[in-house]
Structure formats: C-alpha cells, structure tokens
Design a protein that fits this description.
- By secondary structure, the protein is α+β, with helices and mostly antiparallel strands.
- Helices cover about 25% and strands about 40% of the residues.
- The chain has four helices and 22 strands.
- The strands form five sheets. Strands 3-16-20-19-18-17 form a six-stranded antiparallel β-sheet, with no helix packed on it.
- Helix 3 (about 110-135) runs antiparallel to helix 4 (about 145-170).
- It starts with a helix and ends with a strand.
Length: about 350
C-alpha cells in the first residue's frame, strides 16, 4: 500500500470517530426529530390545562319565567231565563253600562194579563177571608172554614208573586258595571234560554292566569309580586298573586295561580297572551357558573378536580340566574370545580390549572 492510500484510510477513520462522538448529542438536541414524542408524552403527563373555581356559598335569587292569559276581573254572558220575543234593546255595543241598567226587554203582554187576573183573584180572596174572620169571631163558622179562607188568600198572593217574578225576568239587566260587547240578537228576534245576547266584562282591573312547575309550589304565596308584558304594549305591568289552586295538575305537574293587576287605561285586553316573571327572595347556598353545568337526560352533572384528576359528579340544581346556578345537592363548599374545556374532559383525565395572563 502506498503512502497516499494509507493517508486516505487514516482520514476516513478519523471522520468516523468524530461522527460517532457527535451522534448522542444530536439525539438529545431539542430540535431533533426523535425528541418530539417524548415532549408530547411529558405534556400529557402534566394534564389538560383548565380553569378552576373553588365552590363557595353566595346569595342568589331565583326568577320564574312562564306564560299566562289576561282575564277580565268579572265576565258574564247574558242570556234570558225565559223564552219570548225581543221587544226593545237599550244598549249600544262596546259601551259602558252601570250595574242594574236595563239592557233588553222581552214582550210581556201575556204575563201582564195573567198578573191582572191573579190580582182580581187576590182581591176576592181578601174579601172572603175578611167575611170569614168576622163570622168566626161570632162563632158562626168553624175553625176549618176560616182556615180554608185564609189559605185561599195566601195562595192568591203567592200566584201574584210568581207572575211578578216572571215579569221581572222579561227585563235583562247588567249584573255589574262594565263594558258590553257585541250583541247577538236584534229587536223582534225570538229568545230562548240557550240564546246568547252579549257579554259584559269588568276590565278596570284584570286577572292573570298562569302556572308554575310544582317545585315552586312551596315558594309562592298570596301577596307575591309578578311582572308581565303583553304583545303590542311597550311596557311592563305589575300585579299581585291573590289565589293559588289547591292541588297540582297531574297532567302537566304545574300549579295554577292567579294575580290581579290594575287596568285604569284599558291597555290590557282580556284574552291577551302574557309573559310572566316572578322574582323570588334571595337565599344563601352553593353556586357555580351556569357554563360549568352539563345537562343530561336524567339531570345534571359537573366536573370536579380531585388530586389532579377530573371527576364527574351528578348534582341537583336549585335557583338560577343568568350567570349562576345554585346547587342543592352533590357538591360541598371548598370543592374545586372545573369551569372550562368541559367538552374535552373525561372522567379520570389528568388536569392542571391553566396559566393566567
């Protein structure tokens, strides 16, 4: 082997030695391709960064949102108690009427004739009873004869009262002060007890008929305030609960309530759809952010951080506001609640506090 070839082999050997010494350093370098998996594994071992909050007691008021219907304070559908032809109509549609005002008159010529005959009979019976009284005082007739005359007089008086009561029914009067609606009859038409005449409503104040879920049944009582709004009127109305149903509706599991609200300007029209809101008194309890609550088919759950792990915990909720929810059962004061990355969490997953800016 000549000297030139020998020098080449020496040079190649030196390069190989240097490469062997440099290879471990390259593998341990942060930018080396082989170090990527180790870095990712270390990151996984540290856990998913999440926001956390220590659960504590706070004061929170509940708001019940429901829907209802506006009803008149008083309402009646006018009908006749007897049959007959309409003789006169004394009201105009859509106007106010006072209590006791005559609204409609039914023909009473036949009843007037019957009343006149009954009064003649009463007059004869009174004369007969008086003569029998005088004879009885002189002991010229028996007690039985005198009692028979008195009884005949009483029957005559009762007949007069009966016909007079029927005559009173020929006048349809307003049962209370209010506004009368559209009439369904005309003069000359024949009325029967089944024929509607018109409706009368007292709307100086209105009733709000609504229902709440049964869980609020014990939280509401007479005197509680409600706020409601109706379509087409750009303001909020205030009312007070005055009556509660005595039982829960088994079909809907709700409790019906009624409230009264003043309506001096007539802005509230009976039959209108009302959006009702009831603000309950504030109570102290454990609360969490509403965003941390996970709804499920059978209830709700949250994720707690226990020893660096995510733990799924079922809870029962209570009052809630726009941002906070009261927890009635399932967590305790001092527990650490996970409030972010909720959709990424799985039970047992490692978590760590997310860095704060």
């Amino acid at each position: 082997m000549n000297s030139r070839a020998k020098g080449l082999w020496i040079t190649l050997g030196a390069i190989a030695v240097l490469a062997a010494l440099a290879l471990p350093k390259l593998r341990s370098s942060p930018g080396a391709p082989g170090n990527t998996g180790a870095a990712a594994g270390a990151a996984r071992d540290q856990g998913l960064p999440v926001s956390m909050e220590v659960i504590r007691a706070e004061r929170l008021g509940d708001r019940i949102a429901t829907v209802g219907t506006v009803l008149p304070d008083e309402e009646v559908e006018l009908r006749s108690e007897i049959s007959g032809k309409v003789e006169r109509i004394f009201f105009s549609e859509g106007t106010s009427v006072g209590k006791g005002k005559v609204l409609l008159k039914i023909g009473d010529a036949e009843l007037q004739a019957q009343l006149l005959r009954a009064r003649y009979r009463q007059a004869i019976a009174e004369e007969q009873a008086e003569r029998q009284r005088q004879l009885f005082a002189k002991q010229q007739i028996s007690q039985v004869d005198y009692d028979s005359a008195v009884n005949a007089l009483n029957i005559s008086r009762a007949e007069v009262q009966l016909i007079q009561a029927q005559l009173d029914k020929t006048e349809i009067r307003a049962p209370f002060a209010g506004v009368i609606g559209l009439r369904q009859v005309s003069e000359g038409s024949y009325l029967s007890p089944a024929t509607p005449i018109a409706t009368v409503q007292d709307t100086r104040r209105v009733k709000i008929d609504f229902a709440v879920p049964e869980k609020y049944a014990g939280a509401l009582e007479v005197g509680d305030e409600i706020r409601f709004s109706v379509q087409g009127v750009p303001r909020t109305f205030v009312g007070g609960i005055y009556a509660l149903e005595t039982k829960i509706d088994q079909a809907t599991r709700t409790l019906r309530l009624r409230a009264l609200s003043p309506n001096p300007d007539g802005a509230l029209i009976p039959g209108a759809f009302a959006e009702v809101e009831i603000v309950l008194p504030e109570k102290e309890g454990l609360t969490i952010p509403a965003s941390a609550l996970i709804p499920e088919l059978k209830g709700h759950r949250v994720f707690l951080c226990v020893a660096g792990k995510a733990v799924s915990q079922p809870v029962e909720i209570g009052a809630r506001s726009a941002e906070r929810v009261a927890i009635a059962k399932g967590v305790r004061a001092g527990d650490t609640l996970i409030t972010s990355a909720i959709l990424q969490l799985r039970p047992g997953m490692a978590v760590r506090p997310a860095p704060t800016n």
